[in-house]
């Protein structure tokens, strides 16, 4: 990991990554408690990990990353994304958008705002996506 990535991740964690990471953890706990949300709980915790430490990682479609289709990249994934959006995605996306706007106010916050926008897009439809390291 480069020094700049480490510095950006630490600054990210202090200036908003902690709050949104905890929001993802809360969504994961609520999903784990509810019967409907059990399949979403693991994804919430994986995305929470990404939210805590986003620089050096990217979000990619699983079909592209794995070079084959699976259950989450087809019709059932789309249905799951609709259910996800209704239950959790809307609220998490709003949180990321609010943080992005706050970050864009300052010049130094622009990279953080861009990360929040990426995470907001992931919040809308996470099924069929995966987190990959940029060093692979």
Can you walk me through this structure?
With 136 residues, the chain is mainly alpha-helical. The protein is 71% helix and 7% strand. The protein is built from five helices and two strands, in the order ααβαααβ. Strands 1-2 form a two-stranded antiparallel sheet. The mean pLDDT is 89.
- Overall geometry: globular
Quote the distance from N terminus to C terminus. 12 Å
Task: Give me the number of helical elements.
Answer: 5
**What is the average per-residue confidence, as pLDDT, rounded to a whole number?**
89
Flag low-confidence runs.
Answer: none
Helicity, in percent?
Answer: over 70%
**Structural class by helix and strand composition:** mainly alpha
Radius of gyration: 15 Å
Trace the largest sheet across and list its strands. 1-2
Strands, total number: 2
Number of domains: 1
Order of helices and strands: HHEHHHE
User: How much beta, percentage-wise?
Assistant: 5-15%
Largest sheet: 2 strands, antiparallel
